[in-house]
Amino acid sequence: MKLPLSIRRGDPMVWFTGSALGTCLLLIAGLIVIVLTNGLGFFWPSALVELTLKDGSKWLGEEIRRQAIPNPGSDDHLREHRVQLKLGNRDLLGYDFKWIDEKEIASRREPADAFYVERREYGPLLGTPVALKDGERVLAEGDAVWAALQPLVAKAEHDRAAIEQIEKHEIGEINYRIEQQRLALKRIEYREKQDGVKREAERAAVAAAVAAQEERFRGKQQELDRLLATAATTYVTFRAADGAEKELSTLDIYRIYPANQLGFGGRLAVYAGRIWEFMSADPRESNTEGGIFPAIFGTVMMVILMSLMAVPFGVLAALYLREYAKQGPLVRIVRIAVNNLAGVPSIVFGVFGLGFFVYFVGGGIDRMFFPEALPTPTYGTGGILWASLTLALLTVPVVIVASEEALAAVPRSMREASIATGATKFQTILHVVLPAAAPGILTGLILAMARGAGEVAPLMITGVVKLAPELPLDGFFPFFHPDRKFMHLGFHIYDVGFQSPNVEAAMPMVYTTTIFLLLIIVALNLTAIVVRNRLRRKYQTSAF
Fold this sequence. Notes:
The chain is 59% helix and 13% strand. It contains 14 helices and 13 strands. The chain has helices at residues 5-8, 11-40, 90-93, 144-195, 200-231, 264-280, 293-324, 329-341, 346-369, 384-408, 412-420, 425-454, 489-498, 503-543, and strands spanning 49-53, 58-68, 81-86, 97-101, 105-109, 115-119, 125-134, 137-141, 234-239, 245-249, 253-258, 283-284, 289-290. Strand 9 and strand 10 form a beta hairpin. The chain is flat, with a radius of gyration of 31 Å.
């Protein structure tokens, strides 16, 4: 029986594959919408609701969700509802969230004097300010507290910046200099053991340098003590909905606002401030509050290092396989091995990176160049360099395959024309083949960056940490420190979502961090795509 023309032309397969593509795009769009909704909505300041229950108890918080109460086998199954309140006040209550049945609610209101306080620890504080004191002297009480508190909160922000400048930068620099002198002294001792010659002059120079840094340290410590003594003198007392009171230093207040008095402009200002803090600040409170700047920085630097290592080696390997290697069984086996490497689980690469890069290469570097620091490892432990090299190995098969396909797509006539004009094979590859294949090579780079930026398993054993006290890039020579550990957005998502002591409170941080990871991957890929398209247009124009 003769099949219909549409079937013979393959129209059903076209519709089937098109439907599959549309379904995949809808699923991806739905996932992105869910992440954006749960992530970006986290920063919007909501109203505070005070619920008075029939037993007389009062609860103040943000209404997070409302759901039907399951009660299988009864008449009221899914008919009654309950609401979840985000209470804050973890130090007073011991928990952050509470479910309340609606049938137990006697009244509901949004008190105008309810304030939302973002503080250093224990999560947000929700309550009403009742008194402001400077030591034992009362500065304001009742409704006058808010007006008197605002300049003190602004002053606290400047005080925290000054304290951070002294603690993290100035004292941090002194500690770095002392550590360098300690290593210098160990180098002297190591050389003395090697040749048996005492170096008293060098020891005296190191001791003088250490004494000078210790003197600077004492001066900075006194300056820090004076700053803390003047900054931490004002306290504000808040009263929670149940009547309990909490005294809080203004130095610990990061943001405070009357949640039920803000207009749209005020809420937008709080929203923008929270997003900026999330992008630019360091994490605090077990990574569940504050910002993710170290994780953003570490992710971008790791991807850049990975790309700088993977692309050159991948392109060179593809050039050899396509342009120089004699085609035969050995080359086919190499190609099969490269393709199979792309399917190896990432944790296997992580174990290899730990054994080869960290223990073998890093340990060898320590024994050869840093013997004075042993047994404390310098390069023989996880760091951003070893993590980047591990991910470079993970992604280099993708670069090889994409580059070889791009080289194969260059017309043979272009090679022959170049050689006919007197160019050597190397000149032909360098000036004709590689520029023509550059868009395809950049496609391999895009795929490599997209995969490498989202990998977490290899990083967990080659250098990523929960909280990195120092960035791999700073103002100390040699400025870039490849031996340092780093933070990564992917690992940060795992840590906050599954290792946090308060998972439910930290869950919105998972969505917000996911958004920034997606944005970084998109930004890096768009940069490569723009460069690729420009090269493609340039090559097409030159061809005509």
